[in-house]
């Protein structure tokens, strides 16, 4: 399975990089996983609704340019469906079984994902009703994908 994690902005925090690198190393036994960073749109702290839309649309274009036609897209969004780790594992297993070997998880920037990215998504996944920093979500997502492969292989994992 080829998994891409498409995300807005560069990861700067060393502790998050170390955690992500550890899970990417572990995941390499199960799947090819790439993290694709697209530049975030520079914007002042205070934005009008129109300016926010412009920023999200520019970031959305950059995201969409990284997604091929044959890719199954899972957008991370608060309004998405919440799943247990076992349900995520079953979903990834189902995708692989039915020939969807290219999967992209999309993590938006600080303002979220554009409408165009949400329309392109085959499904929307929520980790919580809470808002998390998008850099932290990379680590949480990579850990959950690793856990999903362990579950699908019947290997032990921490509950």
From TrEMBL:
Binding site for S-adenosyl-L-methionine: 76, 108, 127-132
EC nos: 2.1.1.177
SUPFAM superfamilies associated with the record: alpha/beta knot
Keyword set includes RNA-binding: no
One GO cellular component term noted in the UniProt record for this chain: cytoplasm
Matching InterPro entries: Alpha/beta_knot_MTases, RlmH-like, tRNA_m1G_MTases_N
Function summary: Specifically methylates the pseudouridine at position 1915 (m3Psi1915) in 23S rRNA.
Subunit structure: Homodimer.
Name of this protein: Ribosomal RNA large subunit methyltransferase H
Source organism: Bacillus coahuilensis p1.1.43
